[in-house]
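Dear all,

This email documents one entry for the complex benchmark we are building for the journal club exercise. For each entry we list the sequence lines for every component of the assembly. Then comes the predicted three-dimensional structure of the complex as a token string, followed by one or two observations. Please use this as the template for your own entries, and keep the labels exactly as they appear.
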Amino acid sequence: MKTQLAMVIDASRCWDCKACMAACKTANKVPEGQWRNWIKSVDLDLVEPGGGRLIFQPGNCMHCSEPLCIKACPTGATYRNEADGTVLINRELCIGCGQCLPACPYGARFRHAELRVADKCDFCAERRAAGLEPACVATCPTKARAFGNLADPESEVARLLKRNESVQLVQAKSPTDPNIRYLGNPGRTDWPVEAQMPSAFGFWKNVAGPVVKIFVGFSALGFGAMLAKQLFLPDHPEEDRQPEEKRHE
Ligand code: SF4
């Protein structure tokens, strides 16, 4: 069965405690002042006159099925993981050019303050590899977030979407088919902005990408040579090179 990991968020359950943001920051070692996820607060009165209450809309990278960030990346560092449909960043290939940042209609990306490469939510790849749910899902005290395989009709996310009306946040001029769905009324849905794609796109894609891959290839070769040296060369080569008689002195 095909896998498409997705998140279903019931905004009406969110009370803005920010536990999901703190859990994400800790689990993914996100630098101070930067965040991989967010909670937007919207006065429902602005959305539905007479609504008269605040609504909180949690979010993070939407792991879009048609991600514009991938199109903007010149080196192939941002890619779609075909095994589970997530959009990921290969830090080795990222040159920190920042072209992908304005290409995301949701502002989900930022330049990691310490590593100087693009960063964003990866649905907690490390935790998932250990069999755990994303930190924000596991931590939410009101269970506002559900996570799972959208392509599996028996999954919680698929069943929630079958039972309830849902909405995607889509920017009309930059549609990306996001894989976060909101139940009920998530408040404002018109905040995503039009994507800004790199102007010298062809140049970047055709020149920067291959150059970076060559450099990464050289590093890998260097690493391979080092490893081979450790494995196959004797511990004390100097001693081995000594003439026979000298070894017996
Ligand atoms: Fe890329 Fe933005 Fe979509 Fe995430 S939300 S996959 S960063 S376009």
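Observations: The chain has nine helices and ten strands. Residues 201-232 form the longest helix (32 residues).
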